[in-house]
Amino acid sequence: MNQPLVVDLDGTLIHTDMLHESALKVLRERPWATLFIPLWLARGKALLKQRLADHCQFDPASLPYNEALLVWLRQQKDAGRRLILCTASHHSIAQAIADHLQLFDEVMASDGDINLSGSRKAEALTARFADTGFVYVGNCDKDLPVWSVAHSAVVVNGANGLSDRARAVCDIEHEFPLRASNLLIWLRVIRAHQWLKNLLLFIPLIAAHQFSDLNTWVSLTLGFIAFSLCASAVYITNDLLDLESDRLHPRKRLRPFASGLVPAWQGVILMPFLLAAGIAMALWVNVEFLQWLLVYLALTCAYSFGLKRIMLVDCLTLAMLYTLRVIAGTAAANLDLSFWLLAQSVFLFLSLAFVKRYAELALQAESGAVKAHGRGYFTSDAPLIQTLGVTSGYVAVMVLALYLNSDEVLELYRNPTLVWAAIPFMLFWISWMWMQASRGLMHDDPLVFAVKDKASLLAGLGFAVVLIIGSVA
């Protein structure tokens, strides 16, 4: 006789934990409610899960399901086997998932009084299936008490010898291997490739032609590391708060947290360590640099918790976050902030922010979306965003042209007339970036796209060569 299949939810049927998901969603949508979490937890985990479930709504279709397990479960269902979803998550959450999948014959889950986990789950299942027995599908050591009373086990994503421990208490009917995790995945978690943007810290030093001071280079290098660590903490925070939106995005759904490849709780633990290390290193550079880093962190928190959902304000904020890197680089190098550099940075980075948003809107429009999820835009806004972005980019070129006609250029360059040849390179690059975005070839982040794009690299090389020759010729 085929015993009923009892399937765990968190970490088994889905590559995430609904308790963590609920807490993060409450933090994003109702931050004030998180103040009550310690009080709810003090009254028991079952009540905590109920309160979190009451305070948030979620889309079961967006969750990262274990597709291999789902295929196998459907085969078992077609063969006439009964399927029961049994989870420590709150009943309202489990029922919503069961209704979405249309796969389970019954749902057993926690309520406000009983947390259906471990030994309590084992007792409930023993009583429910005393006549037939059952096969339990689980993924961790908390399932061992259940497997000890089950007819057999199905081990999913078993790590650290879990299969051996399960086999010691019952037979194993089937196994689903653990998804691979390696260093590259963690580099994706911290978005190490995004650290390239922090090279903007070196722009003031290069613009001022202060190349010979070793101490300044050391300070900027430490500042680069500090900004990178803090930026990674910010990226992790954004990814955790944007789980649902990312899962509805054609590319972002593959990010480690959105796909469930890395558990959300690991990001919650890693984030403060990165932040603390970055702030400590920034203090080592100098106090003024630390102050600008804190401004960056405050603005990016405001962006994460609300500004990114406000039309146009989101792009202006992104431009300011780029520009703050340039300002912080000025502080780290103990240089005076140039009006020309500041003005060009604002307009150039505003154009790049519009590139980023335009690319996202165009991609979502192709998938049939009418409104960008988690953003204040309709996909029909893309043409206007394109116009605003191109205009901002050309204004940045105009600022550069005015700068090249200023007295400062006469002091920095031996041949100021030759430096004017940098203008065509800048015009080409701005136009090229927007052409790529218009053709749907733009990476989510334009600066990351630029360092991988041959035409952009050649334009940057030409720009640099003109400035170098103008300095020494």
Description:
This protein has 473 residues and is of the alpha/beta class. The protein folds into three domains: 5-176, Rossmann fold; 180-337, Orthogonal Bundle (Tetracycline Repressor, domain 2); 338-473. 59% of the residues lie in helices and 7% in strands. It has a six-stranded parallel sheet. 41% of the residues are buried.
How would you briefly describe this protein structure?
This protein is about 60% helix and about 5% strand. The chain has a 6-stranded parallel sheet with strand order 3-2-1-4-5-6.
The shape is: elongated
Characterize the biggest β-sheet.
6 strands, parallel
Give me the side-by-side strand order of the main sheet.
Answer: 3-2-1-4-5-6
Gyration radius over CA: 27 Å
**Binned strand content:** 5-15%
Order of helices and strands: EHHHHEHEHEHEHEHHHHHHHHHHHHHH
> In the CATH hierarchy, what is the architecture of the largest domain at level 2?
3-Layer(aba) Sandwich
Q: Helicity, in percent?
A: 55-70%
Q: Can you tell me the residue ranges where pLDDT is under 50 for at least 5 consecutive residues?
A: none
Q: Helical stretch count? A: 22
Counting structural domains, the number is 3
Please state the oligomeric state of the protein chains shown. single chain
The third-level CATH topology of the largest domain is Rossmann fold
| CATH superfamily heading of the largest domain | HAD superfamily/HAD-like
Mean residue pLDDT: 91
Q: What gap, in angstroms, lies between the N and C termini?
A: 89 Å
